[in-house]
Every structure is written in C-alpha cells, then in structure tokens.
Give the backbone structure.
Amino acid sequence: MCGWIIRSICQMNNNNLTNHNFFVKKLSDPLQFLSKTIQMTHARSSAKSPPDRHASILGTRVRQRRREIGLGQAELAKRVGISPSYLNLIEWNKRRIAGRLLGKIAEALDLSVDELQGVGERRLLEALDEIAGLGAYAHLGIEGERSAELIGRFPGWARAIATVARAEREATARASALSDRLSNDPFLGEAIHRMLTRISAVRSASEIVSDYHDIEPERRDRFLEIVRDESRALSGAGEALAAYLDKAEDADRILTPTDEVETFFETNDNNFSAIEVAAEALARELTDPRPISRRKKAQGLVETRLGSVIDQIVQSSVDLATEPARLRASRALMDYAVGAVLMPLSQFSRGAAELGYDIEALAEMFSVEIEVVCHRLTALPGETGSPTFAYFRSNAAGTIIEMLGLPGLALPRYASACPLWALFRAQQSPEAVIRQRALFPSGKRFVFVVRARHTGPTGFGKPRHYLTDMIAMTEEDAGLTVYAPDSAVAVEEVGPSCRLCPRHACIHRVEDPLAG
C-alpha cells in the first residue's frame, strides 16, 4: 500500500498535476486525498508566511563560526545533542533554531546568544537591502537576496560597504543641500543684490568725479562722501557674505535658525520628558469640556507654570547657538507643551493605538484640532512599538513652513518640493483627509496623510486662506495604522524636488537634476 502511494505521488509530481483524469482518480483514494490536502495546506501557509531574511543570517553565522574555530560538523552536532544531518540543515538555513538549542549552539561556539543571533545586524541588513535597491547601482547586478549571507560570512565587509554607502549618501546630500541653497537661498540673493547696488553707486559717483573736473568743491566732496559710505557698506556686505559662506562650508555647524531648531527637535526625537512629566500634572486642571476654553486654559498654564522648564531646556541645548534660534525653539516648545497638556502622553499613546492613529478620531476624542494631533503623533516614543511619524506644514504658495523630519525622507529646505506630493494638492479638497502611497527614486516607500484647513478670519465675503498639515510614515509603519494601504492602492512615483530627482522622464519636471 505504501509503495503504491509513493509511486502515485511521484507520478503526480512528474506530470506536474496537469493530467486531470489522473488527479481525479488518485483523489478517490482517502490516503491520497489526505496527502494532497496536507501539501496544499502547507503551500498556502508558506505563501502567507514569507521567510524571515534576518533569520537566514543565523545559520550562516553558525557555519562560519564553526569553521573559524576548527570544529567539525559531526563534533558540534554531538556537543549540542542533534544529528549531523539536522545541523547541516540549520547551517544552510533550512531549519530555524531558538530556545535551548540556540543556547547550546552558542555555548559550543563560545559566543553569547546575542552575538550568534546577530541582534545588531538587523539594521545592517536593512542598510544593505537599501543599497541593493538604489537605482544608481542597478547595472551592477547586486544579489540583494544574498545580503544576509554576506553579513553572516563577512560581517566586517558588510559593515564597511554600509559605511561607505552611508558616507557617499551623506556627501551627496550635503552637496545637494549646498547647491539648493546657492540656487534658492533668499539670504544669498539679497546679499548679492545689495553688493551690486553698492558697486553701482560707487561706480556712478566715481565716474562723475573723474569725468567732470569743473564740479564745485562742495558737490565734489559730496560725491566723495558717497563713494566712501558706499564702499564701507560694500565692505560690510562682502564680509557678511564671506562669513555666511564659511559657515555653510562647516559641516559641523547649523546654517540658519530654522535648521538649528529642526536639529534641536531631531536630537531629542521630538520628545521632551521634562515637559511631558509636568504636563501630565497640569492636565488634571482642565475641567472645562469646551475645546476653545480648554485650549486657552492649557495655554495659560503653559505660560505661567512651564516657562522656566522650557527656558532651561532651551538654554542647555548645544544645538541652539544663536538667539533667533533660541526664540524659535521657545515658541515651538510652548506649542509642544500645550499639546502635551491637552493630550497627556500616556492617554494619547493608548488612545492612538486603540484608534489606529486615526487623526480625525483622535481630534474628536481629545476635543482638539487635527493639526495638534498631527504634531502630537511625532512625540510618540518609538521604543513603545508605535509608528514613527514625520510632520510637515505648507502654505498656499507651496512653501514648507514647519517640518519635523523622518530618516530617509528627503525634502529641500529652500526650493519647492516635488509638486506630486499630496501635500501640495490637498488644498483642492479642503477639510478632506487624503492618503498617498509614495515611491521615491531611492526605492523607499512612504505613506502620506494630508489635510488642508482654513486659517484666518471667517465670514461672508472674506477670502479663504488654507494651510496644509501632513503626517508621513514608512509603508511598514503604516501597516500599524488605519491608513495601511492594500494592493489596490496605487503607488505614486514622487521625488524630493526636480534638482534632486533622477527621474528624467517625469512630465512634471521643470528643472534639470543636479547630478546628470
């Protein structure tokens, strides 16, 4: 009977299940039907559960370490109490290991469990996957599916590759930012315009003195004073421009007060524990359920009770080197504190998880505006397992007026960003929440959630002005939210800006890219 079943299965495999009559005949046998059912169930299970590529590092590390210490496969198998054939399957990533067996193998290889598992290698694997997906390297035929094997066998080389790629990316980003600045920075344009104006004044006055010898002494002296005053002003403008450019070339310095504040928030992961602790206590004093009254009460509490806490945070920060930056940071922390009082972090974190980080539902739950919720989402600590959010705000001119960034999400600071972002079309449908699934040239995918809101005075005949708020998250993090896209949601190709985007065929391109 068993031989008949084996022959039948082999025949089915040889025919690749294409012979319908044969398939029906074999299903008539209960044992064959059971066997087929198990195979189909296993296939469905495999399809739903793609292999963990990070786990494939483990077997490779076992094999590599065993060889490094000169230990035979049979000897290692004997020490951990398994057969050599089973160990062979482990080493070639055909079987997973965990628990006591993992501990035994680590001990036999004279490693800790963390060292063997390569806990610190997950980020490295993600980095190599990112490198393999870059369009600039597409012609090299990088075997992206073998990144885990590279890490397992040659971890030093894997780290070196990631380090070099990171350095190249940072250098490119710095060059792009400087080019962006030189092309669009209003300070540079104003400074050059001032210098040209002074030069024209000096030239005109000096030509008059030089060409007309019969000018009255008083008028000649007046022209000479103009030359002197304009020359001094020109010298001052030149010194300011030189100092600015020197500062721009210093990679360790922040270029503008806005940059300083953004770096300040980024350094603190958009979360300030001292404010959170104080705000938790102040939140108990908000007893009025009316939204406007609650907000005014929260603002008053922050101004009177948290001013010293905010001043201490600002004054102790090394990221805030200039007085304008410190003033901006103080205002930003005031807004942060108001949000913390209205939505204490413990309550907000719990409510956000329950509602799937739905900005409209959260605004209703806490009786606040949606933009306050968007801001608050960026303060959620990542170690709690919550998604990591970025926040952007733009005006009707398409200028980004506030930004709390996200690693890997590039955005020009001075030029206009890519017009294909939902951030810039939301004002066509004000007050509606729009979701966008965005694919960048680097291969990274993000989900944008955008809403345009009216700002300013209301009333008949008064013009309507809108600001747009947007939260952004990686597509992986979006899977934890109500905004998780399914396969039916279109993927839109976007970029940071025309100057920084390599998509030459984009019909919306208005400027040639910086690099070729």
Notes: Confidence is low (pLDDT under 50) at residues 1-6, 12-28, 37-53. The longest strand covers residues 445-455. The CA atoms of residues 191 and 237 lie 7 Å apart. The chain is about 55% helix and 10% strand.
